[in-house]
Every structure is written in structure tokens, then in C-alpha cells.
């Protein structure tokens, strides 16, 4: 029986239909939307977050912790709020001085060079805005940008909105059953085949969302050689940089010889400190690149919340949260994998990040929902799971371009940065369902 969606005013209010009514009322004949919006209006987070809320499903889909950030971060935030008038007013638009100084010192040790706190950072509203500023600042009409697929879904629309053309470089699964995210590999030949005179940048994401792949040194070196040889900018999204497992090591491509000069590294305090709602992120790179991101930032957002930029006083101490969180997640990751295996689903063990994907081709499900009949199989399965079983996951083909989606419909993504009680609730649903099958 179909579970009834739970409706509330907030959810109804969010619906795009209001825009349509508004358009009708104004009676305007001219086209309202800018052409750059065409083909980028659909968004998996908007769609699946709403569906998850409507059906009150157990959420192991969207990537956010359902537990609180560590207490030292909460205390730092509270002391910022009560720390005097200046914490409630504008601060330096390119980043609160105390924060950029701490970040420069911290990352300077990792990349092995002096980083200029004032020149080499732009603090942003989450990693999302860092990515947006980067594409807007560096990509011109007609430029081509290599995006390694599967990719965090916003890269492609952001490149398009900047007037660029995405070139998709598929990270191929090696033959045989995939047991680890390391089974997805980049081929140097395919990388080289994407090159032409308009190729300006490449976007990589390590640890990768959704695969959990952590790029090894030789893979990063191959990309670095390519960038240096052909004068290409590297945009490296490293929001999950602290989360690696089983000895996998996160390496910053900006730390390889010759790469600092051409790399924009994207980071997220939300992901680093389990506070995704605070929306603090950054772009880090050489001042001559970052200054262009600053131009975009100063003319659009100008400034990010001052108090939210105060939480970094304890950035990187010995008992750092950056060590505690992966230790905690390692256990949750094993727990989820064991549950999936117990019902005959083979998980792809992630080397890093928040997520685990699993092949669902063995599932025998009678998909009789006509409203999803034209959608990829994984979208249909995920919607069925939400509506019929009250379990929210994410379809992996959503991390592929519409052109390639048809080839990758057999995986769904689980998020394990969740309370044990949430994981237990998900396990109960999965096991009960497998008994009934
Ligand atoms: N990049 C990747 C790979 C992500 O998964 C996300 C989602 N957290 C972002 C960027 C955006 O991060 P933020 O929430 O800091 O804007
Ligand atoms: N990055 C998060 C994920 O992959 C969610 C981003 C969002 O909700 N927009 O789940």
C-alpha cells in the first residue's frame, strides 16, 4: 500500500507552482527566465529532500550528520554570539581575519609552503559558493571544463551558467564486481582525449561523492602532469578531506610540485565540523587566481555571517575532531556494509567520505508507479523505497550527466554520517523487507 505523504504548509509553499501563478498574474508575454537556466532547473536535493519529508522517511540519503557538532565548536559559536557588537556586524568581506590566518597556518603546513592569509583565501557561503565563484571567475563563454564523472551534481550546471561547456571524463569501473571505490579508475588516454584549445580547467573531487574514491598519488600526479603540460587550471573539491578509512591517505593536489600555482582547493567547514547548516566554506589558491574569485564575491554575496566564521580557534589540535570523526564514521561504515551484505546487496566499500553505494540490479521489485515510468531505474527504485518502505537513499545516476545516466542505473547511495538510531531504523526496514520478499 502506498504510504500517504505528510503535507504541510512549508512544503506546499516551496513548490514551483507559485512561480507559474505569479507569471500568469503579471500576464507578461516576454520570456522571463534567462537562457542560462535552461536545462539546469532540476535538482536532486530539492526533489529528494522534499519527497523524504513528505513521506517522513528514515533519511540515509542526503549528506548531512543528524547529530550535533562537537561541543567545542558549539561553545565557540555561542561565545561569538555573546562576544560583543562586532560579531554581529560586517567583517572583512574576503574572510574574517582571524579565520583566514588560522586557515593559512594550518594548510601551509599541509601543502608545505607559506600561504598568505589575506591574498590566498576567499571565505564563502559553504563550498557551494566557493565553487560558484570559481566557475564565474575563471570560465568564459566557450571555455571547456573537464568534469570527472561521477561528480557532485552542481558542477555541470555551474559550468553551464558561466557560459562554459562541460567535457565529461568518465571514471571507469574496472571489470568484475566492484568491491571498493578504488575499482573506479581514470585512464590517462581518456584524459588526454578531452584536450582541445578551449579546455581551460579540470574539476576533481577527492574523496569523491558519491563513490568514496580517494585519489592515489599516481593518479593525482597524472592529472598534475596533464594540467602543467597543457596550462590547465585544476579545481579540487576536497570537502571530505578528513574522512578516509583503512589507511587511505588524502593528498592535496595543490601540494604536488608545480600545482599550487594552478589549483583552486575547495573546502567546507560544514563538512569538517559536522555543521553543514552554518554554511562556511572556502576557496584556497594563489593570490593571482583567488583575486578573481574575490571580484565575484564582492559583487554578489560580499560577506558571510561573521559569527559563523569564529569557530576555528581549535582547528587542527592534536585531539582534533578531524581524527575523531573518521574513527566514529569507520564503525558506522562497517555497520552499514554488514547490513547490506546480510540481505544480499554488495556494498562498494568507500575509501573516504560520507557515502556508500551498492548495486541494486539483483532487487526484484514490482515498480508499478506510473508517475516514474520514464525515469532511470535507480530513480524509480529510490522513489519506491521512500514511498513504500519509508527509507530515503539517493540514486547514483543523479551524479552523472543526463547523457550518461542511461548507462549507470544500477546503484543507489547510502549516507552513513547518521546517529546509530537512524542506522538501526534503516537496518530494520531493509531486513524486514528482505524477509518479506
Ligand atoms: N562538494 C561536495 C563534493 C559536496 O558533497 C558538497 C555537499 N556538502 C559540497 C561541495 C557543498 O558543500 P557545502 O555544504 O559546504 O556548501
Ligand atoms: N552534499 C550533500 C550530499 O551529497 C547534499 C547537498 C545538498 O543537499 N544540496 O548529500
From TrEMBL:
<keyword id="KW-0808">Transferase</keyword>
<dbReference type="GO" id="GO:0030170">
    <property type="term" value="F:pyridoxal phosphate binding"/>
</dbReference>
<comment type="pathway">
    <text>Amino-acid degradation; L-kynurenine degradation; kynurenate from L-kynurenine: step 1/2.</text>
</comment>
<dbReference type="InterPro" id="IPR015422">
    <property type="entry name" value="PyrdxlP-dep_Trfase_small"/>
</dbReference>
<feature type="domain" description="Aminotransferase class I/classII large">
    <location>
        <begin position="58"/>
        <end position="427"/>
    </location>
</feature>
<protein>
    <recommendedName>
        <fullName>Aminotransferase class I/classII large domain-containing protein</fullName>
    </recommendedName>
</protein>
<keyword id="KW-0663">Pyridoxal phosphate</keyword>
<dbReference type="Pfam" id="PF00155">
    <property type="entry name" value="Aminotran_1_2"/>
</dbReference>
<dbReference type="GO" id="GO:0016212">
    <property type="term" value="F:kynurenine-oxoglutarate transaminase activity"/>
</dbReference>
<dbReference type="InterPro" id="IPR015424">
    <property type="entry name" value="PyrdxlP-dep_Trfase"/>
</dbReference>
<dbReference type="InterPro" id="IPR004839">
    <property type="entry name" value="Aminotransferase_I/II_large"/>
</dbReference>
<dbReference type="GO" id="GO:0005739">
    <property type="term" value="C:mitochondrion"/>
</dbReference>
<keyword id="KW-0032">Aminotransferase</keyword>
<dbReference type="InterPro" id="IPR051326">
    <property type="entry name" value="Kynurenine-oxoglutarate_AT"/>
</dbReference>
<comment type="similarity">
    <text>Belongs to the class-I pyridoxal-phosphate-dependent aminotransferase family.</text>
</comment>
<dbReference type="InterPro" id="IPR015421">
    <property type="entry name" value="PyrdxlP-dep_Trfase_major"/>
</dbReference>
<dbReference type="GO" id="GO:0047804">
    <property type="term" value="F:cysteine-S-conjugate beta-lyase activity"/>
</dbReference>
